[in-house]
Amino acid sequence: MTARLVKGVYGTYLAPFEGPFGLRYGQRRKWYIHNNAGWYNSEGEKLGWGDLNIEDIQRIASELLPGEVFIILSEQDTSWQHDRMDAPGIEYCAFKCHCIILPGKVYKVVGHEYETADEDVEDQGLAVTLVSRSRARELLSQPTNA
Question: Which of 27, 30, 101, 105 counts the highest number of beta carbons within 10 A?
Answer without folding.
Answer: 101
